[in-house]
Amino acid sequence: HVQLQASGGGSVQTGTSLRLSCAASRRMFSNNGMGWFRQAPGKDREFVAAINWNSDGTYYADSVKGRFTISRDNAKNMVYLQMGSLKPEDTAVYYCAAARGAIGSRSLSMYKYWGQGTLVTVSS
Protein backbone atom coordinates (compact mmCIF):
# COMPACT_ATOMS: atom_id res chain seq x y z
CA HIS A 1 0.00 0.00 0.00
CA VAL A 2 1.39 3.40 -1.01
CA GLN A 3 0.69 6.43 1.13
CA LEU A 4 1.04 9.88 -0.35
CA GLN A 5 1.55 13.15 1.47
CA ALA A 6 1.09 16.39 -0.43
CA SER A 7 2.48 19.66 0.88
CA GLY A 8 3.47 23.14 -0.18
CA GLY A 9 0.11 24.79 -0.57
CA GLY A 10 -0.61 28.28 0.65
CA SER A 11 -2.09 31.67 -0.09
CA VAL A 12 -0.34 33.62 -2.83
CA GLN A 13 -0.91 36.57 -5.13
CA THR A 14 -1.76 36.41 -8.81
CA GLY A 15 1.30 35.98 -10.98
CA THR A 16 3.47 34.36 -8.36
CA SER A 17 4.86 30.84 -8.14
CA LEU A 18 4.47 27.93 -5.78
CA ARG A 19 5.90 24.44 -5.65
CA LEU A 20 3.90 21.51 -4.40
CA SER A 21 5.58 18.35 -3.19
CA CYS A 22 4.27 14.84 -2.80
CA ALA A 23 6.10 12.29 -0.69
CA ALA A 24 5.40 8.59 -1.23
CA SER A 25 5.69 6.10 1.58
CA ARG A 26 7.82 3.57 -0.17
CA ARG A 27 10.11 2.97 -3.05
CA MET A 28 7.63 0.95 -5.10
CA PHE A 29 6.23 4.30 -6.12
CA SER A 30 9.10 4.52 -8.63
CA ASN A 31 7.27 1.98 -10.83
CA ASN A 32 4.09 4.03 -10.97
CA GLY A 33 2.97 6.91 -13.09
CA MET A 34 2.07 9.89 -10.94
CA GLY A 35 -0.43 12.68 -11.31
CA TRP A 36 -1.66 15.91 -9.82
CA PHE A 37 -5.34 16.73 -9.73
CA ARG A 38 -7.25 19.62 -8.22
CA GLN A 39 -10.70 20.32 -6.93
CA ALA A 40 -12.14 23.79 -6.60
CA PRO A 41 -15.11 24.47 -4.31
CA GLY A 42 -18.30 23.17 -5.87
CA LYS A 43 -16.51 21.59 -8.81
CA ASP A 44 -15.42 18.12 -9.79
CA ARG A 45 -11.86 16.98 -9.32
CA GLU A 46 -9.90 17.64 -12.50
CA PHE A 47 -6.65 16.57 -14.05
CA VAL A 48 -3.71 18.95 -13.82
CA ALA A 49 -0.53 17.08 -14.77
CA ALA A 50 0.94 13.59 -14.94
CA ILE A 51 4.31 11.97 -15.41
CA ASN A 52 5.46 8.50 -16.41
CA TRP A 53 7.41 6.32 -14.01
CA ASN A 54 10.75 7.17 -15.61
CA SER A 55 9.92 10.79 -16.47
CA ASP A 56 10.03 10.08 -20.21
CA GLY A 57 6.56 11.52 -20.65
CA THR A 58 4.68 14.39 -19.06
CA TYR A 59 1.11 15.47 -19.66
CA TYR A 60 -0.73 18.67 -18.82
CA ALA A 61 -4.21 20.07 -18.81
CA ASP A 62 -4.58 22.85 -21.36
CA SER A 63 -5.37 25.29 -18.57
CA VAL A 64 -1.92 24.89 -17.00
CA LYS A 65 0.27 24.09 -19.99
CA GLY A 66 3.24 26.40 -20.13
CA ARG A 67 2.73 27.53 -16.52
CA PHE A 68 3.06 24.31 -14.52
CA THR A 69 5.79 21.69 -14.58
CA ILE A 70 5.59 18.21 -13.09
CA SER A 71 8.73 16.35 -12.13
CA ARG A 72 9.80 13.47 -9.94
CA ASP A 73 12.79 12.16 -8.05
CA ASN A 74 12.45 8.41 -7.71
CA ALA A 75 15.50 8.17 -5.46
CA LYS A 76 13.72 10.39 -2.94
CA ASN A 77 10.18 9.05 -3.56
CA MET A 78 9.06 12.57 -4.43
CA VAL A 79 6.88 14.20 -7.06
CA TYR A 80 6.72 17.94 -7.58
CA LEU A 81 4.41 20.41 -9.24
CA GLN A 82 6.04 23.73 -9.99
CA MET A 83 3.29 26.27 -10.55
CA GLY A 84 3.99 29.62 -12.15
CA SER A 85 1.98 32.64 -13.26
CA LEU A 86 -0.74 31.62 -10.86
CA LYS A 87 -4.26 32.84 -11.46
CA PRO A 88 -7.29 33.03 -9.15
CA GLU A 89 -8.84 30.18 -11.14
CA ASP A 90 -5.99 27.95 -9.97
CA THR A 91 -7.43 28.12 -6.47
CA ALA A 92 -8.24 24.57 -5.37
CA VAL A 93 -7.22 21.67 -3.22
CA TYR A 94 -4.42 19.88 -5.05
CA TYR A 95 -4.05 16.11 -4.80
CA CYS A 96 -1.22 13.86 -5.85
CA ALA A 97 -2.01 10.35 -6.94
CA ALA A 98 -0.19 7.16 -7.92
CA ALA A 99 -1.36 5.46 -11.09
CA ARG A 100 -2.23 1.79 -11.38
CA GLY A 101 0.49 1.38 -13.98
CA ALA A 102 3.74 2.91 -15.11
CA ILE A 103 2.22 5.59 -17.31
CA GLY A 104 0.75 8.86 -16.15
CA SER A 105 -2.87 9.38 -17.15
CA ARG A 106 -5.41 12.17 -17.45
CA SER A 107 -8.15 9.91 -16.10
CA LEU A 108 -8.98 9.79 -12.39
CA SER A 109 -10.00 6.15 -12.71
CA MET A 110 -6.44 5.19 -13.64
CA TYR A 111 -5.14 6.16 -10.19
CA LYS A 112 -5.11 3.81 -7.26
CA TYR A 113 -3.64 5.82 -4.39
CA TRP A 114 -4.44 9.40 -3.42
CA GLY A 115 -2.89 11.88 -1.05
CA GLN A 116 -4.87 14.03 1.34
CA GLY A 117 -4.63 17.27 -0.63
CA THR A 118 -3.05 20.65 -0.07
CA LEU A 119 -4.91 23.93 -0.47
CA VAL A 120 -3.72 26.58 -2.90
CA THR A 121 -5.42 29.96 -2.79
CA VAL A 122 -4.57 32.60 -5.38
CA SER A 123 -5.86 36.09 -4.79
CA SER A 124 -5.94 38.96 -7.23
Descriptive account of the structure:
This protein is mainly beta. It is built from no helices and eleven strands. It has strands spanning 4-7, 10-13, 18-24, 34-39, 46-51, 58-60, 68-73, 78-83, 92-99, 111-114, 118-123. Strands 2, 4, 5, 6, 9, 10 and 11 form a seven-stranded mixed beta sheet that branches. It has a four-stranded antiparallel beta sheet with strand order 1-3-8-7, with no helix packed on it. Strand 7 (68-73) and strand 8 (78-83) form a beta hairpin. The radius of gyration is 13 Å and the shape is globular. The mean pLDDT is 94.
Structure at a glance:
This protein is an all-beta fold and 124 residues long. It is built from no helices and eleven strands.
Topology (elements, then pairings):
Blueprint (H helix, E strand, L loop, with lengths): L3 E4 L2 E4 L4 E7 L9 E6 L6 E6 L6 E3 L7 E6 L4 E6 L8 E8 L11 E4 L3 E6 L1
Rg, alpha carbons: 13 Å
Tell me the β content: over 45%
- Give the helix tally: 0
Report the biggest beta sheet as strand number plus sense, adding barrel if it closes. Answer: 7 strands, mixed
From the spread of the alpha carbons, the general shape counts as globular
Approximate helicity band: under 10%
Number of strands: 11
The N- and C-terminal alpha carbons lie at a distance of 40 Å
Order of helices and strands: EEEEEEEEEEE
Instruction: Please identify the structural class as seen in this structure.
Output: mainly beta
Low-confidence stretches: none
